[in-house]
Each structure stands twice: as C-alpha cells, then as structure tokens.
Design a protein that fits this description.
This protein has three helices and four strands, in the order αβββαβα. It is α+β, with helices and mostly antiparallel strands.
Length: 93
C-alpha cells in the first residue's frame, strides 16, 4: 500500500467528519508533517503520513518533537487502520 492511498483515505475520513485535512507545505522549514487536520470545535493536529512499516526521517522526528514541545499534537500514520482511532483522539481532545 502506498503512502498516497493512506493520505487519500485520511482526507476522505476527515471530510466525512466535517473537517479539513490541509496539505501542509512550509517553504524554508523542512521536515514539517504532511497534513494539518482541522476538525469541528477547533480541534487540530499535525499528521505525518508514511507507507506501511516506514518510519519518519530524523529531520521529521526532530520537527515533530519541536511541535510537541510547543504544545501541538502530532501523529504518524502508516496504516489505514490507524486513521479512525487517531481522528477519534483528535476529536476527543
């Protein structure tokens, strides 16, 4: 399964919940997560998407830790089976 398939599934599931999964591009700030998930009632999180069993690169790990230190929630998804649980966590936070 390709990362692209997981990403499309995430976008579709977020849309079903009435939210937005914005593609996050940050010129000059490498390693930022792929998507910014925005759900109703002001719920949000950064999501890095990976192909199954693939891990974030060291720069991506550092960027995720930096965002978490600033108080932001970040997730890494490498399987479509994770999507429902993670969206529930974001919505419930």
């Amino acid at each position: 399964m390709l990362e692209k398939y997981i990403e499309k599934k995430l976008v579709a599931e977020v849309k079903k919940m009435g939210g937005i999964a914005a593609k996050f591009v940050s010129p000059g700030l490498d390693g930022m997560p792929d998507r910014l998930v925005l759900l109703p009632l002001g719920k949000m999180a950064f999501v890095e998407l990976k192909a199954p069993r693939k891990k974030p690169r060291p720069l991506q790990i550092r960027r995720i830790k930096q965002l978490q230190k600033l108080g932001f929630t970040c997730y890494v998804i490498d399987d479509v089976e994770q999507i429902g649980g993670i969206l529930y966590e974001i919505q419930s936070s």
